[in-house]
């Protein structure tokens, strides 16, 4: 298990290192070097198989990479929910775990926000002004000044905030900072500077924010804010219907406030008052600022009703109409993204894939553990183990395949979920698995092939995302944005196709499965619209399959896969012996064994064990009645084949047979005490440089023309305990070739 964890650790540390390199922030160079060191340590542990280095690398990656990432998520969630004190504590822990990352000043900024929550605007301004006086780095000073501007806007001191911004920044600076731009747009609107607001909005749309697909919601909020202060009451009301409000990520109270502002600027004072009065009733726990703004707007409405309405010059009217059209296009391209808050289905699917891998690793039985957890093989499908057609989509046996599938879902899933909703993602993943896995099992010639359901699931979601990006499907997405999203999706899709080559991943990826996944992905987004009866029906199918997956998991857990394998054996020939083998064993010629200083005679190898990184091989050798000098027949059947390897190995006779294997063999002897199977076993431990590398368990078969030894080589020795009933039954049932 430690080997798989080290591989995952190296992958996680490597991804973090590459991400830091791409950002190349000067203040994070110290942390960059530390993460690079952890990555190098993880690689050394994976290559050298050093247990001490492995434990150290896993611990350092957990503390310096994984834990800060978890704390960052927690701090963001706390901040978004207005729990600033909790956000400050979490950010402080994160700063401790990331030495050299330059997070000390960030901690001071969060502390200032906590002061704002506890004591109000003036103490917070005092704190930030003190920070600005002590700042030496230009970038750091800019961030602090942004906070001062935001504090002034928070206190509805619009003129002071605008003046501070214009003294400290060049006019288009806010176009690079979307959150600051939103506050500045509102300040310009409250101050009646609509032409300046229009210029800022143009800069936002033409700059990097306009090309970033992740900023679509915030850019549309900026458009909506401008329209509200321009008095475009109808476009604002149209954009704030319930589904569209969710697309924009606005709370009900925020929507009512913007409608009230738009109506007041349009001269519809009574309707505006009704909307603004409703804001406190709609407000949630984090809407205190929205409520304060509505109270201020109502006060101005009562005292300055005649001055609130605005009249736009003709060119501004045309610009406002164009902004309304762009906002309408965005909302029509993403009609269901109310869902614009936190993602649900995508992280759940990713977590389920990780959980499936962890279950297999925690079982500690290699490839056989994958079968116990629910992996599907053609033989099990023909035996009508239908639960595996769904559960098998979440079972993984190697860290590389897991990382590829999780990364693919992370890229492709959010696009589908934002547009079609979480149930569509679940439906695509589960339908593709339910169709693709059985099809792969039905078209695969190898009855013991361990099929990759995770690849089928990930490929279906990737194809769905690419299909959604077609210009005819999402006309509102700019070409540059479309390319930005599509290129990484094409790359991960190509990686899934490359995994079709056998043995690239530990589990088999079959073309028929990926083809079925592609068809399912295209149909689920191409034929079914985001809303309507068909969409609800598809969502119902996804929910039903989710329930069937739970039932299937219960069914798989009740299956005795080892007993099933024992009963599905057929006769196979070895030199001087006949053995009963399951379909997972395949014949092999004499070959070198990677990682071991030996080569093996022709025999039978357990392919399922190989998928989990174990070697279990069955072979037989004759025992010479007159062994020549140097023959090692008296030591170990394995070395009788290759005595020249004697000097490379340490052979320990009378080794302890792995306990589960020994118990299974003794149970078989108890059932037939008088049979030939009652003959005892001999075990030899194989060591290299003092480390155990395997065990040979052998049994002697006597026949007319001499004796043969039937042997099981397990490397590592624990592999014999991964399917003890199966391997013990194979050795116990072995018969001499001339037995009647």
Gross morphology: elongated
Overall SS class: alpha+beta
Per CATH, what is the topology of the largest domain?
Answer: Rhomboid-like fold
- Cα Rg: 34 Å
Mean pLDDT across residues:
81
As a percent range, the share of strand residues is: 5-15%
Oligomer: single chain
- Total of DSSP H or I helical runs spanning 4+ residues: 34
CATH H-level superfamily of the largest domain: Rhomboid-like
Tell me what the structure shows:
It is a single chain. With 740 residues, the protein is of the alpha+beta class. The chain has 4 domains: 1-119, no CATH class; 170-333, no CATH class; 345-559, Rhomboid-like fold; 564-736, Protein Transport Mog1p, Chain A (3-Layer(aba) Sandwich). The protein contains 34 helices and 13 strands. The protein has a 7-stranded antiparallel β-sheet.
Describe the protein's topology:
Blueprint: H1 2-23, H2 29-48, H3 51-80, H4 84-97, H5 104-119, H6 121-134, H7 138-154, H8 158-168, H9 178-190, H10 194-206, H11 208-211, H12 216-229, H13 233-239, H14 242-248, H15 252-265, H16 269-282, H17 288-303, H18 305-308, H19 314-333, E1 337-340, H20 345-363, H21 366-373, H22 378-382, H23 388-391, H24 399-420, H25 422-443, H26 453-468, H27 479-498, H28 511-526, H29 533-558, H30 561-567, E2 569-574, E3 577-582, E4 585-588, E5 591-592, E6 599-600, E7 603-606, H31 607-611, E8 615-623, H32 637-641, E9 650-652, H33 659-671, E10 682-688, E11 691-703, E12 706-715, H34 724-733, E13 735-736
Antiparallel strand pairs: 2-3, 3-13, 4-7, 5-6, 7-8, 8-12, 9-10, 10-11, 11-12
